Amino acid sequence: MSIIVQKFGGTSVGTIEKIQHVAQKVKKEVDQGNQLVVVVSAMGKSTDQLVDMANQLTPNPAAREMDMLLTTGEQVTISLLAMALHQLGLDATSMTGWQAGIQTESVHGSARVQDIEIGKVQNKLSKGSVVVVAGFQGVSQDGQITTLGRGGSDTTAVALAAALKAERCDIFTDVTGVYTADPRVVPKASKLEQISYDEMLELANLGAGVLHPRAVECAKNNDVYLTVRSTFSEEEGTLVKEEVTVEDGIIVHGVAHDEEMTKVTVRGMKKEIGALSRVFKTLASKQINVDIIINQSMYDTDITNIAFSIDSEDLEATLHVLEDNKESLGYEDIIYEENLAKVSIVGAGMISNPGVAADMFDSLSREEIEIKMVSTSEIKVSCVVPAANMVKAVQVLHNTFNLDKVEETEKVNA
Ligand code: ASP
Ligand code: MG
Question: Domain spanning 3-174: which superfamily?
Answer without folding.
Answer: Acetylglutamate kinase-like (3.40.1160.10)
